[in-house]
Amino acid sequence: MSYMDDSLAHLEIFEGTVPWMYLDTRGFVTVGVGELLANADKAETLSFVDPDGEVSTQDAILDEFNRVSALVPAKVAAFYRSSTSPLLPHAAIDTLLMNHLNLFDGQLAARFPNYASFPDLAKLGLLDMIYNLGQLGLFQHFPHFMAAVDKQDWLGAAANCHRVGPSQARNDWTRQQFLAAAAASDSGAAPASSVTTTG
């Protein structure tokens, strides 16, 4: 499994996957793994299907977008689902998420000249950081972390990657990727898969 596929799998766990439209904490219509639908036109470009698996009509998608938009924000995702809600197939959700990951991977490569040679475990940690924080949030507000990554000091990255907001389990997982990258660098090994936090 490539580090990109590994990252996608873990983001779906950490972020959660919702195949129907719902409102996020800010009141924006969202679907999949936090995919913001800025307007109905955006929603209509996605390959929604009805509960029977048939391709949803544009009218059905528009009606659902308007229905969800009028509801109270920040409820649990199931609150927004009706018996007729259009659903986004998992393959389509994966495609949207991978598009974001490719964008973030490119931003990391542009920021770190040696990114291509970073251990895959470090790239996993970096992708989780930038997906959660955004480019500006990571690059501008984590100076000690960024300085450690510039030096490929994975122990330093592990010591400075804690974020306020994500669960302790997610923070622990991200930290563990950098610790494992440090251990692999010291031993000369190059494990390609993510490390699961224990304890």
Can you walk me through this structure?
It contains eight helices and three strands. It has 199 residues and is mostly helical. The protein has two domains: 15-89, no CATH class; 112-187, no CATH class. The protein has a three-stranded antiparallel sheet with strand order 1-2-3. Strand 2 (29-32) and strand 3 (35-36) form a beta hairpin. Helix 1 (3-15) crosses helix 4 (90-111), helix 1 (3-15) packs across helix 5 and helix 4 packs across helix 5 (120-141). The longest helix has 22 residues, at 90-111. The model has no long low-confidence stretch (mean pLDDT 93).
Summarize the structure.
The chain is mainly alpha-helical. A hairpin with a 5-residue loop joins strand 1 and strand 2 (29-32). 54% of the residues lie in helices and 6% in strands.
Itemize the secondary structure elements and their pairings.
Elements: H1 3-15, E1 18-23, E2 29-32, E3 35-36, H2 40-44, H3 58-69, H4 90-111, H5 120-141, H6 143-150, H7 154-159, H8 168-187
Antiparallel strand pairs: 1-2, 2-3
Helix pairs in contact: 1-4, 1-5, 4-5, 5-8
